UniProtKB/TrEMBL annotation:
GO terms for cellular component: extracellular region; host cell nucleus. InterPro entries: NleE/OspZ (IPR048901). It is found in: Host nucleus; Secreted. It comes from the Bacteria. This is NleE. The keyword Glycoprotein does not apply. Keywords: Host nucleus, Secreted, Virulence. Belongs to the NleE/OspZ family. Transmembrane segments: none annotated. It comes from Shigella flexneri. Its main location: host cell.
């Protein structure tokens, strides 16, 4: 499974993928945009392919909801906080090793700490 973004449903890469017999794609708009689409690519000859693609979309929607709840935060904080929440399951979905996921989450937490340290105390 993998994912990428395109700015048009007429993008040649998307059409090339759709012609492959064992590949399927799920398409959804990115951040409520009419001009950016996320393409989730999966093997349709795998029993887990579509299930994983659907879960990816669910996790992406969870990230959007979290960012909406954090609407008063800066874009950077919204991005980091929402990423920390979904990172483990998203990493597992893409079959990253536990150590890689832990390292990524630590990196995100470190960035969050750095940003908070720069913020004025109220």
């Amino acid at each position: 499974m993998g994912q990428f973004s395109v700015d048009s449903l007429y993008h040649p890469d998307l059409h090339a993928l759709c012609e492959l017999p064992e590949i399927s794609c799920k398409i959804f708009s990115k951040e409520n945009s009419y001009f950016l689409y996320i393409i989730v690519v999966f093997r349709n000859d795998s029993s887990q392919g579509e299930l994983r693609a659907n879960r990816f979309i669910e996790l992406y929607d969870i990230k959007r909801e979290i960012m909406q709840v954090l609407r008063d935060e800066s874009p950077e904080l919204k991005s980091i906080k929402s990423e920390i929440i979904i990172a483990r399951e998203m990493g597992e979905l893409f079959s990253y090793a536990s150590e890689e996921i832990d390292s990524y989450i630590k990196q995100m937490n470190d960035r969050l700490s750095q940003i908070k340290a720069r913020m004025p105390v109220t």
